[in-house]
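TICKET #2291
ISSUE: user wants both folds in one file
ATTACHMENT 1:
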Amino acid sequence: MAQFTRNQIHLLINGTEHVVQGEHAFLPLAQYLRYHAHLPGTKVVCAEGDCGACTVLVARWNQESWTAFQTLNSCIAPVYLFDLASIVTVEGLAFEEELNEVQQKMREFHGGQCGYCTPGMVCSLSGLAEACAPTRTKISEKKARNHLTGNLCRCTGYEPILNAATHIDLEKWSSLKARYLTAEQALQFKARAQDAITLVDGLKEIHAPKTLDEAVKIKMQKPGIRITAGATDLGVLHNKGKYFLDQVLVLNRIPELGRVEMTAQGLWVGAKVTLTEFENEVELSVPEFSRLLRIFASPQIKNQGTLLGNVLNGSPIGDSIPALLVLNAELHLMSTRGLRKVPLTQFYKAYKSFDLQPDEIAIGLSIPPLRDNWSLKFFKMSLRKDLDISAVTFAAALRIENETILEARIAVGGVGPTVVRVPAIEQDFVGKTFSETVFKEAGKNIRQYIKPISDLRASDAYRLQVAENLFHKCWYEMAEEKESVCP
């Protein structure tokens, strides 16, 4: 089929098609919904993706089928990322002019007070009901709490909201998929899915190519163009005026970049694979990583943000980076000159300085398989358990046979300008007996290899103490797991 390049974004909002072009395509979705689609139920409070007042539900046309509806923050996601998406706002949840089951229960149990956060709460719980209804999986308080980590409320104390959630009758749930993802809409979007997008408005440009070859040509011609797939980091910076997403290369329309799979060579993760998709993929193969991702961020962020985005942001407190460093992940960088592979251990040069050429695009990363006798522990230390930026991060991978440590990999974040592997500490482990004494000694020794700073999240002294303590925590949890598998 011949490729066509269009200058419009096509999306559905509560079942009605919207064709967006010009300056409106560059707006955060929440602003478009409120001021141009005339749907003010979607609120904007933080404009940072933290509070969840702007939560909406989104399903996307994915080559041949629709994805499931998922929640995301509309305040930090620009409209151009929603080409061929079906969006449902709080106004679209009612069915045949009657409140849906979630809305009914929120009213019955007084789940709203001032009401500002309520539309986001209702959308998040509707997403949970939509996921649970096909199997009639009962919504427990724990499941509701986990699903609401991205929705903040200052009025109710959450008890009435949780009561509403646990009393949702899934037999009465009206499927959003059945209502909004119709065969007619699928036919329209299937034809448009073959198109590339180039949209220009004054000095602003959006390029959304269909092939990797096109993408690298654009990057070569425009080396300063910003690359995005989820924009959960860039969207915040744009809203705060620190960076501007005026010239953007969007990777979402390149099918092969959405691949995540385990192969004989290990795990492959494409550039547009979301954190949610990655979390689900590694639940059985690398369960410790999946556990970490459960407290990584809110569902709204994980449903939109990508693993590669977190890696390329390069924050010294990036939550995924220590784990990927000890797993010996390797970045795949593509340009018109071909493919270049860079071990993640060599990618970070200094604060926000990377081994990345101006004409290169990160297309994915590979994680080699771990053989038998490896133990993994990944920790994130923050003031809150959920939806908080880390003060210190830690990852350990140890290969242990007959109580002897044969190989060790240690990475620590929040203790310098980049996340670091600590070769001297790793070497100290090798040949030692797996014992509490060895770990406590390593914790004391780590102080001489890290140089944390004091900032609003923690003092340097606190970070030094936490880094030391995490070695002890690592010992206890690994020892407990070893005991649990012993006959």
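ATTACHMENT 2:
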Amino acid sequence: MNYLIRNAVAIHAEDNPTARDIRIRDGVITELGRGLVPTAEQPETLIDASGCVIWPGLVNTHHHLAQSIMKGVPAGLNQGLGEWLSSVPYRFWPKVTPELMYHAARLGLYELIRSGATTCADHHYLYHATTSPELEEAVWQAAEELGVRLVLCRGSATETGSHEGMIEHRIEPETIDQVIDRLEATRRKHHQDGPGAMKKLVVAPTSLIHSSTPDGLRAQARWARDHGLKMHSHLLEVEFDEIQAREKYHQSAIDYAEACDWLGPDVWYAHLVHSDPHAIERLAATGTGIAHCPTSNCRLGSGIAPVVDMEKAGVPISLAVDGSASAESGSMLQELNLAWLIHRAAHGPDVTTLEQVLDWGTRGGADLLGLPATGSLAVGRQADLVLYDIDQPRFAGVHSPLMAPLMCGEPVNVKDSFVQGRRILEDGRVTGLDERELTRKVQEGVARMLADA
């Protein structure tokens, strides 16, 4: 379907900052301007964007959709990462059925859409020696039904190692052969090449330091690069990563990653909170990026990632929600708002700008995920865009309307949202999703999970 969106208050289109209208044909932005009128040559649906500002769709570069059903677990509310992993995600992981995973994924994607996101990189790590492939298929199915771009970062653990959660809950890891064979099956079935793909596969061992072997990491890196796939993992979220790297491998965590072929422009890491100047230098020199997760890092008391220094050094920056078990809002807009504020609190009012943070949450993420046809609004780009309704009391006093959603934060009302020109949210409602049914299914699933646990 073709669309003509008219009369926006403002549009974040860097090459055409005065534009107020957008024309979409065959999933692509074909015109930006003012006073655009319908054409007789092709029928198009008119959308009145009066009272709205239009942004590129937000790009979430690190999520754990399975955790959407693990919010606010009492045992983990005041724990740091190590204890929290055991009390929350690894406690419930063996109890997550494919059906529950499907509803969890729909819930997490629903929350992202309602905050303005159009792309999700899900670090899905619910794999062990006897995992059913249906658990992963549930994630692909949910994303396809809701129309979201999905980058599935296929987690893995090939040894229990120093991973406290796996040890306590006796989770049997996969072999490296199982990991590669299952990756290949997913690649053949789902992965799409190209700068505007709707589905991508990423090689993503859950932890470099705690549950992988050097040979296994090198094997996964080699396989990923042989097939042109990107690579992702957690690193330096807490100081324990550095301690374990030095004890087990007699080198820093970042040097260990490099020794295992896990730095490069095709790699990005979640968190990197405890990056010292040497780590930042190696990240920048190799083009390795970060998924900055400020809410989760605050919630777990992990610290603040030094992304201001990273950006100055040339490290690619993106933003991410992380799992809703440690970032209960599930909102990309909250991540933008907190990223704008938290570094100012630490370093002064001029270290982050609104434009800079919005770039991290859009273009930065799209480029990191290998989706450069998205992430910005320009003629020829794929039509991933969001209409935020700011014609409401809480935005009425804002003097910079284009950045009102970022400055004011949640709650926000997304009027319409498009992915590849498909309308996935219309007049404030996610298309193809019954909110009452979703609520009921999640509540029932959580009750069963608690009873089993």
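RESOLUTION: both attachments delivered.
EXTRA DETAIL ON ATTACHMENT 2: The chain is about 40% helix and 20% strand.
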